């Protein structure tokens, strides 16, 4: 878990260095330093195989469309979110691999 997009990118790089494969990322849209769509686009550039889920109540349609187009977004879940919906999105993302 990371407190910001920059920290998350650092964690991902460290895990890659340790040869630990990240399978799924669930990101909020409103984060310090970088919006979730921008973060997921950067993740996609560096780690295209990772399943990406955007979880938020504040992203606008343009941000969601950018994430779909440039980050290969697996799923967008609006807040308030349901635990079963999130679990289902993660499972369906893993099943894609």
Describe, in plain words, how this protein is organized in 3D.
This protein starts with a helix and ends with a helix. Helix 2 (36-46) packs parallel to helix 3 (61-71). Strand 1 (24-28), helix 2 and strand 2 form a beta-alpha-beta unit. It has helices at 5-17, 36-46, 61-71, 83-96, and strands at residues 24-28, 51-56, 75-78. A three-stranded parallel beta sheet has the order 1-2-3, with helices on both faces. The longest helix is centred in the C-terminal third of the chain and has 14 residues, at 83-96. The protein is built from four helices and three strands, in the order αβαβαβα. The chain is globular and about 35 Å long. The mean pLDDT is 94. By secondary structure, it is of the alpha/beta class.
Strand portion:
15-25%
Q: How many E strands?
A: 3
Order of helices and strands: HEHEHEH
| Percentage of residues in helical conformation | 40-55%
How many DSSP H or I helices?
A: 4
Label the structural class: alpha/beta
Radius of gyration: 13 Å
Poorly predicted tracts of residues? none
| Coarse morphology | globular
Average pLDDT level: 94
Widest sheet: strand ordering: 1-2-3
**End-to-end C-alpha gap:** 22 Å
Main sheet specs = 3 strands, parallel
